[in-house]
Amino acid sequence: MLIQVNDRQIELPLGSDVTAVFDALELTPLGYALAINGMVLPKSEWPHTRLSPGDDLAVFQVIAGG
Amino acid sequence: MIDETSATEELSAAEFLRYSRQLMLPELGEEGQLQLKRARVLVVGAGGLGSAALLSLAAAGVGQIHIADPDAVELSNLQRQLAFESGDVGINKAKAAAARLTRLNPHIQVQVLPLALRGELLAEQVASVDLVLDCSDNLSTRYQVNQSCAEGQKPLVSGAATGWQGQLMTFDFRRSDAACYQCLFPFDANLSPDDAMPIGSCRTLGIMGPMVNTLGTLQALQAIKLILGLDADSGMSYLRRFNGLTMEWQTLAVARDADCPVCGYQGSSSPQNRGSSQRRSEYVDTGK
Questions:
Q1: pLDDT of residue B2
Q2: How close is the nearest chain A Cα to the Cα of B82, in Å?
Q3: Which of B79, B81, B167, B246 to mutate to test the interface with A (most CBs of A within 10 A)?
Q4: What is the pLDDT of residue B176?
Q5: Phi/psi zone of residue B119: left (φ > 0), alpha (ψ -120 to 50 degrees), beta?
Q6: Are B264 and B183 a contacting pair, CB within 8 Å?
Q7: Is B260 part of the annotated catalytic residue set?
Q8: What is the pLDDT of residues A27-41, one digit of tens each?
């Protein structure tokens, strides 16, 4: 299935969970947040949240500068 | 001579003139200006975000402003930290900012905290104000400020920027269902976040000055609206991301994490049960 991640589309197996996105992007999720269709998904729900075709994801890291 | 700064029940003629352009706004008016005058705000960090936020809050007439920062002004700060001038280099930022704000608006009171707020002192400061702005430059401070505001049930307006990216968050802990910074960016409380998450800072990643100015000014705007009861977010927590290169904003709703050790106190409404208040007090500031 195709999903949108930030400004690009990626292909994931049907039924993939959220952690598969980080594998596909080759990112270590430390300090990252993830939103699906405009709603941030608590990290505790990542392992048991399955993605649907066409989902629009925002993946981004915490910023500390001030 | 009447001490105008202590009169919080009315505005002087000079104050009416000074604030006349915002007094015109139907959402503000005289009562709103008095609300600002009575308000007490803690600003943690007087760097780029803090400079812009502090100048806006002081100019708008927020009556009591507490400024905490342990660092001294450096020459490399002046590219973006608008509260300071060349002659301030070497002076503590909280002190230098306080002097600037007092010159800007003699009707307000400023408390200087030339130190890193931690543990009990942070909790005391949070308890003594109505609202907190996190303008700090490191993660350990950010997690501690979040925890103190959650426990003290004080609204927190958090801003951050590096490079061309900015993040703006409001967590209204007066509401028992508010999400928090830890819900958004969960982190193992047994680790030091700045060591475990080497995400970089303005020092290592660089920063475009108007990015921190913009985010800090918007923190002040959010603070003013919270003081006036004009919060358009209706208590929901949002993260707003700003890309300064493309000029695009993205607004994301932040839901509370039921497993959050800071605010996810599963079934209990007592703030005393909101996670461990001790966990984060052991952090050492790895700062800059």
A1: 45
A2: 13
A3: B167
A4: 86
A5: left
A6: yes
A7: no
A8: 888 889 999 999 999
